[in-house]
Amino acid sequence: MRLRVSWQLLVPLVAVIALVVAWGRHLGPVPVALIAVLLAGAVLAAVHHAEVVAHRIGEPFGSLVLAVAVTVIEVALIVTLTVSGGKDSASLARDTVFAAVMITTNGIVGLALLLGALRYGVTRFNSEGSGAALATVATLATLSLVLPTFTTTKPGPEFSAAQLTFAAIASLALYLVFVLTQTVRHRDFFLPVDSRGEVAEEEEHAARPSRRAALASLGQLLIALVAVVGLAKVESPAIESGVRAVGFPPSFVGVVIALLVLLPETLAAGRAARRNRIQISLNLGYGSAMASIGLTIPAIALASVWLPGPLILGLSSVHMVLLGITVVVSVLTVVPGRATRLQAAVHLVLLAAFLFLAVKP
Q1: In whole angstroms, what is the distance from residue 110 CA to residue 135 CA?
Q2: Where are the transmembrane segments (predicted)?
Q3: Contact in structure between 102 and 351 (CB atoms under 8 Å)
Q4: Would you say residue 33 has pLDDT above 90?
Q5: What is the pTM of this model?
Q6: Which is the CATH superfamily of the domain at 7-359?
Q7: Where on the phi/psi map is residue 313: left (φ > 0), alpha (ψ -120 to 50), or beta?
């Protein structure tokens, strides 16, 4: 029997070894750079193994597995950086979650629509499923990121303990209801459609992995996640120092985290768009935004019991404007059930505006 060792297995194992060697030590520039490469590789490997499991169980469960895997990585990075950070880490969860929302709803969606429109002219998707997902994202973002700016029980853009508990429970409950809708009650709303708007035949470009292969990938996924969490802790001082060194605001650390964890999702959504499976791309984009809020906020709320310092969740006025125009544009994009490169360009410009203002607030 021929033994095949893939990079998706090798990189997490090397990352775990590097974690053991580097833990608790002061690292120079070269080791920091090597660990950064291993961290990125471990993230890519984790999402690859999540994709194998997703391919085994099929859509729309597959998009859900990917979204949850990415959220686990995101929460790990937020918590490790918050623990090691100073006063600027109080808003890290907000900055990361909002960056994830903007990158998914404008970046992933915009890129998918652009790739699909360039290849097929007009992209088509299920407006019922995409509209439901967008409504859930908008509600979650408002409850967790907008309301803290206006509540008065506690001064500043913070929730009181009772308000934070309510927001966490409501976010988790809403996410779980959406998952039930997506995977059980109205599964057909989230499947790809053809040129007539009808559910398309399932397209198989590769044989479904065996149960044994899926279980192996599940185990390797856990190893990769351990490597990501540990290396994030080791790399956190370098990330913060790098952001300060280039003169960017401390809030840009959240953008770095979101860009890192959402890179594999972006690649997966782009591949689906090139196969004219735009609905899968939208499932990935909106599903990741939903999971980023619906799972991250409850996890951070629970962690805030022992995390140092306050937890700032309320958005600034500039970010609320960006969120508002994103929701309006997204509604106009998904309601018709089809889009062209114009809608793609609008979403990508909104992403560019967010990134520019993150650097020059």
Answers
A1: 18
A2: 7-24, 30-49, 61-85, 97-118, 130-150, 162-181, 213-232, 252-272, 284-306, 312-335, 342-359
A3: yes
A4: no
A5: 0.84
A6: NCX, central ion-binding region (1.20.1420.30)
A7: alpha
